[in-house]
Specification:
The complex is a heterodimer. Chain A is of the alpha/beta class. Chain A contains 15 helices and 18 strands. In chain A, strands 3, 4, 5, 6, 12, 13, 14, 15 and 16 form a 9-stranded mixed sheet that branches. A 6-stranded mixed sheet of chain A has the order 7-2-1-11-18-17, with helices on one face. The longest helix of chain A has 21 residues. The radius of gyration of chain A is 23 Å and the shape is globular. The N and C termini of chain A lie far apart (50 Å). In chain B, β3 and β4 form a beta hairpin. Chain B is of the alpha+beta class. Helices cover 21% and strands 22% of the residues of chain B. Chain B is globular, with a radius of gyration of 13 Å. Classes of the chains: A alpha/beta, B alpha+beta. The interface between A and B is large, with 48 and 36 residues. The structure holds flavin-adenine dinucleotide and iron/sulfur cluster (2 copies). Flavin-adenine dinucleotide binds next to α1, β3, β12, β15 and β16 of chain A.
Chain lengths: 431, 91
């Protein structure tokens, strides 16, 4: 690196930053990837699963060498009441056609950064970027704790809090209704026991989403994922909701872990790590301006998360790739102006990222309005219905049915019993 | 499991100086003190006698929730200097 100058600097070695850097290196560009952690992944937390098809676009056949935990073969939804639950399961064979994998972010992010280095990216971990350097309203470099580095373009991939996008006015502070707080524990459990409890073959995995129970009537979602010999369990909740609740985030996690259905999966396990992270959840309406002279924002820093479908890493990687492609063109034309970099926005609009976010621009509002139906009434009705169907207790069926229907009417579910999913989809399809 | 047991599962490298600062006069006038319950690491505690906010910055998980949640935008929030702060082994 001559005089601390490269063609491109990427700040942040999460999925977005690594994907941008590797795409640039593959096109022969001189790119510096800067990460504040001792290793990539040291500071990062997710649920979660990475998605096979989109991840393979950056790392072909990654599952052959990357540190993955399990290939997801079952997706479950838990509808919890106070003590009972109804579980919906979608099970599929994965062999040869992987859809998603659980990973440990510390290992996965580190592996990704190593691949980037192998492909020619200058990689600088243990480097915190304190600010961007501006000259005549162009971003021309970065200031770290100890040094300055210069480039034609800087790509900001510093995650949900993006202090750098805020510094140059591309982003304001996030509204507390546009972000959710998540807390999580990784629980160690004997591998065979884990496979028995989740009814899994070796290497297969299960992803669970949890509604209701202690999370009822809150804009919150629990999750549980199987890793090799650990279970990741946690929940996320809109920041404005938890502010109102005045409850400590870890106390609500205790309640979730104590629910009979949930606790059966994790019992006698040892919590080996506690963690917390924010998720951008404002969707389409919260996406900031994504570029300016000499700069583009990608991934969580650009709020590109589709929380309806649990998609974050894949959109981060795709946005990184599209920004990199824009940068390659800009470097070839020696034009780093915002009009040149506006092609990044066009590419995002043509991609599934902004198309899907736009589709869901009103969905959160619908869900928030109907959160009682979704997180409280549906779990109760599902459990009550199954109770009637399966309990032989000498009570006449007609009496039970009448009671059940009365209950539905009393709870006002007739009007809200148009399945929410249909309501939400209908809203999405309206222009 | 209490919060101290939870935090004990984590590896930290403690910086000598705090990366979080507040103006105590502003906190004194803050009714809700949302930072004292929203923080997943229980970093903030209001000291009624001395009228100061105790900030156990060495326990911070670097999530960013407090800076967004504080109505008075009274938290000067940055990342710990590199090599310091929390270090996840699983994430
Ligand atoms: C609880 C939870 C569950 C999730 N579950 C899923 C899931 O199942 N599937 C899915 O696809 N997505 C999931 N997500 C979302 C997903 O994790 C994010 O969308 C994704 O990590 C975004 O990638 P990124 O590269 O933009 O940001 P990050 O992964 O946040 O990476 C940002 C990087 O920048 C570095 N950095 C920050 N500031 C600086 C600085 N100033 N200088 C140097 N480096 C800096 C950080 O250390 C970090 O490495 C989940 C998120 C959470 C919190
Ligand atoms: S919420 Fe903000 S103003 Fe209120 S006590 Fe906490 S830091 Fe101070
Ligand atoms: S960043 Fe998160 S963990 Fe750190 S003090 Fe703020 S709320 Fe607590």
């Amino acid at each position: 690196m001559k005089n601390n100058k490269v063609e491109i600097i990427v700040v942040g070695a999460g999925p977005a930053g690594v994907s941008a850097a590797i795409t640039l290196a593959r096109a022969g560009k001189k790119v510096l990837l800067v990460e504040r952690g001792d290793c990539a992944g040291d500071k990062n937390v997710f649920g979660g699963t990475i998605y096979a098809k989109q991840t393979a676009e950056i790392f072909p056949k990654f599952w052959e060498t990357a540190p993955i935990e399990r290939a997801i073969t079952e997706q479950k939804i838990f509808l919890l009441t106070d003590y009972n639950s109804t579980q919906i399961s979608y099970k599929y064979a994965s062999k040869g056609a992987y859809k998603a994998f659980t990973v440990n972010r510390s290992k996965w992010d580190k592996w990704c950064s190593q691949q980037a280095e192998k492909e020619g990216v200058y990689y600088a971990p243990k480097t915190l970027v304190n600010e961007l350097i501006l000259k005549d309203r162009n971003v021309i470099g970065i200031k770290t704790e100890f040094e300055e580095f210069y480039s034609d373009i800087v790509i900001i991939a510093d995650g949900v809090n993006s202090l750098l996008a805020k510094q140059i006015g591309l982003r304001k502070e996030i509204k507390d209704s546009d972000v959710s707080l998540s807390v999580k524990e990784v629980i160690k459990i004997n591998k065979e026991k884990l496979e028995d409890r989740f009814n899994l073959d070796e290497e297969d995995g299960c992803a669970c989403r949890i509604l209701g129970g202690p999370l009822r009537d809150k804009f919150a979602l629990g999750f549980m994922y199987t890793n090799k010999d650990t279970i990741s369990i946690g929940y996320s909740i809109s920041l404005d909701e938890i502010k109102k609740l005045k409850v400590k985030p870890y106390e609500l996690l205790d309640e979730l872990k104590a629910h009979p259905t949930v606790s059966a999966y994790i019992k006698n396990g040892e919590t080996i790590e506690y963690s917390s992270h924010l998720i951008p959840e404002g969707g389409y309406n919260a996406v900031p301006k994504l570029y300016d002279n000499g700069v583009m924002i990608i991934g969580d820093a650009a709020m590109l998360v589709n929380n309806i479908h649990f998609e974050g890493t894949n959109l981060a990687m795709l946005s990184g790739k599209l920004a990199a492609e824009t940068a390659i063109e800009a470097i070839n034309n020696k034009d780093y102006s915002k009009s040149s970099l506006s092609k990044y926005h066009t590419k995002l609009k043509e991609s599934i990222i902004l198309k899907d976010l736009k589709t869901h621009r009103n969905t959160i509002e619908v869900i928030k309005k109907n959160i009682h139906t979704l997180s409280s009434l549906y779990p109760e009705l599902a459990c009550e219905f199954l109770e009637i169907l399966t309990s032989a207790d000498g009570v006449e069926k007609k009496v039970k049915y009448r009671k059940f229907l009365k209950e539905i009417i009393k709870k006002g579910t007739i009007s809200s019993s148009i399945p929410l999913a249909i309501l939400a989809m209908e809203k999405c399809l309206k222009k | 499991m209490n919060i101290n047991e939870r935090l004990a599962t984590l590896k930290y490298n403690k910086d000598k100086e705090s990366h979080l600062t507040v103006d105590n006069d502003v906190c004194m006038r803050c009714n809700d003190k949302v930072c004292t319950y929203i923080c997943p690491a229980n970093v903030y505690e209001w000291n009624e006698q001395k009228c100061i906010m105790t900030i156990r910055y060495e326990n911070c998980l670097e999530c960013g929730a407090c800076k967004i949640a504080c109505e008075k935008k009274n938290i000067i929030w940055r990342y710990p200097n590199c090599e310091y702060g929390v270090k996840y082994k699983n994430g």
